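Tip: read the tokens left to right.
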């Protein structure tokens, strides 16, 4: 459920960003370059040279997103933006595209402000990045939906912010319905089971069967890393393990997203 919530929120952001890029290119060049969010088109060959931009977001939303474009598409776009006036000089295609992405970022932020609150997006050209483990949303032309034109990568902080945003005192679930947080007052006395997770480890069946008294299982978390507080398997807080009257406890140091979202989703 958490992964699906993140995916829905990221696709909504990507759709707004794709529309903004298309409009920025149309205004700058006079010709259309439509982009739609696609489910799973084939990415361009990794042998193609990439042009990458970091989108650092601050304000009502916080986090970072990366936009990845591919050659020769970048040069073709630069020529279109320059009105087809010959071959662009070295570095000019990236600068031209950065101007378009910056303009699109501002427009996307304005279009999403009513949902997420005011936020700014700082765009910067970067290079040599690897995006392992990030959620990726492809944008492609509806004329060729099998081939991605732009890939957007979302880091965990931005995904949490997107999926947990409250707009005007309301929480928005994955189906787009608005739920007033005040409705929670009706169930405030319901008891919920929470648990602490110090770490986890995947073991092959052979090692599980070999466990016995005195066996030691190494977890995936260092002793100085925060402990996780789970509600029905979902992460709701992180903190430091403490002892309270001889029992384990948790001193909360971080709440990744608004607590109500775990109950309204």
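Filled-in amino acids:
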């Amino acid at each position: 459920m958490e992964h699906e919530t993140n995916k829905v929120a990221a696709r909504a952001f990507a759709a707004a960003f794709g529309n903004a890029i298309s409009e920025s290119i149309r205004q700058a060049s006079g010709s259309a370059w439509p982009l739609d969010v696609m489910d799973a088109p084939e990415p361009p060959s990794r042998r193609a040279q990439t042009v990458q931009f970091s989108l650092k977001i601050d304000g009502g939303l916080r986090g970072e997103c990366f936009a990845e474009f591919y050659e020769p598409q970048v040069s073709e776009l630069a020529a279109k933006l320059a009105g087809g006036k010959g071959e662009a000089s070295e570095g000019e295609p990236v600068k031209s595209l950065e101007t378009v992405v910056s303009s699109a970022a501002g427009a996307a932020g304005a279009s999403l402000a009513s949902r997420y609150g005011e936020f700014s997006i700082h765009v910067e050209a970067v290079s040599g990045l690897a995006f392992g483990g990030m959620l990726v949303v492809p944008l492609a032309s509806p004329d060729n939906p099998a081939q991605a034109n732009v890939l957007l990568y979302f880091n965990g902080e931005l995904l949490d912010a997107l999926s947990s945003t409250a707009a005007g005192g309301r929480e928005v679930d994955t189906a787009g319905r608005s739920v007033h947080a005040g409705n929670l007052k009706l169930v405030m006395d319901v008891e919920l089971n929470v648990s602490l997770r110090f770490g986890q480890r995947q073991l092959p069946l052979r090692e599980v069967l070999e466990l016995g008294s005195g066996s030691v299982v190494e977890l995936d978390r260092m002793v100085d890393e925060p402990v996780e507080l789970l509600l029905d398997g979902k992460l709701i807080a992180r903190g430091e393990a403490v002892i309270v009257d001889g029992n384990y406890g948790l001193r909360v140091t971080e709440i990744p997203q608004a607590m109500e979202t775990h109950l309204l989703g």
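The radius of gyration is 23 Å. Residues 2-163 form a domain with the Chemotaxis protein chec fold (CATH 3.40.1550.10).
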